[in-house]
Amino acid sequence: MSRVSPRGPARARADAARATTIGEDYGPLSAAGTVAAVTSAPPPDPVPAIRLPWVRAFALGRVFAVLGMQTLLVAVGWQLYERTESAWALGLVGVFELIPVLLLFVPVGHLVDRSPRRRIAMFAHALLGLASLGFLATTASDAPIWWTWALLVVVGVARAFAAPSVGTILPQLLDPLQFAHANAWMSAAFQVASVAGPVVGGALIDATGGARAAFVAGAVGQAVFLLCLLRVPKPPVPTVVAGGRGIAALFAGFSFVRRTPVFLAAITLDLFAVLLGGATALLPMFAKDVLRVGATELGWLRAAPGLGALVTAIAITRMAPWRRPGRVLLAAVTGFGVATVGFGLSRNLALSLGCLFLTGLFDGVSVVIRMTLEQMVTPDALRGRVAAVKFVFIGMSNELGGFESGAVAAAFGPVASVVIGGVGTLLVVAAVASRWPALARIGPLATLRPADDAAPVPPPG
Question: Assign residue 246 a region: left if phi > 0, alpha if psi is -120 to 50, beta otherwise?
Answer without folding.
Answer: left
